[in-house]
Design a protein that fits this description.
Length: about 350
Amino acid sequence: MHVMNGIESRHDGMVAPKRKRFVKKEKDINVDGLYEEIGKGSRLHLSKAITLLESRAEQDQKAGQELLRKLLPKTGKSIRIGITGVPGAGKSTFIEAFGLQLAKVGHKVAVLAIDPSSTVTGGSILGDKTRMEALAKHPNAFIRPSPSSGTLGGVHKKTRETMLLCEAAGYDIILIETVGVGQSETVVRGMVDFFMLLVLTGAGDELQGMKKGIMELADCMIVHKADGDNLKLAKKTVREYRQLLHFLQPATPGWTTSALPVSSLELTGFETVWETIKSFQEHMVESGVWNERRQSQTKDWFHSMIRDRLIDSFFSQQGKKELVANLEKQLLTGEMTVASAVDCILPME
């Protein structure tokens, strides 16, 4: 065989492109700038500050905590109101109508709306700004939807800190809308001054499905959608709840929980609700319960954060995730009891 030499290859003249290397740059977070703008009431910078607090990045968390420490002297001057309710009670509709009434007379209203996170994807719709379009446009209002992110109690882990930021920005009324009534819904009671429970007409059915515990935590019960053909039934429901509340322990010492009819469609009952809240604040400040509750909430927050930090610290230790995964397999195959598996991780002294 005769092998012929191939054609000598030559460069086509094109310069080979250099491969770009993307280097993640650390963000330059201007804490002092955020402090100044939030003090002026900037909603844009308030949103940025909340995003810092909710971030899982270490740099963002440090900056968020530094900002919060600087703003602390400006906090604590609002009325914190928690709002929950049975499914379909119209929490968002009520909050928008109530918030608009307050904003129009000069109050600055912040709405912290919590959306349930998907147990499958972890995502949330966060559609509260869409549902409260009129309130979102008002210059005296601020709406911040956040995912529950698996947190029990229908609130976000950073709800308390977000509330403080809103107070520092000058919002004197904080409305916290939770994901809805549930057995763990009571967590929100531990971070607000006044707790409202929204219910619907047809008290007989609702009373059967309502948890006694959640009713005992309410400072006011709102029978919603009390309008049109439903008005007569709503008034009957109010009477039934008032009778029932006499047999329950009051949520706040020295305060009698009331039931009130409200219509967000016809804008009726809101003045009575606001007068009830102001009366509550006046009586509780005078009796000293207001400050006692705030101090108790701070201690509860402290202990809650300790528990969260301990859990995060445990799983961040080398080999702990693998150990837990291995023990889970043994549990599922019946080789070990749950108590024994826990002893392997945290042996009792």
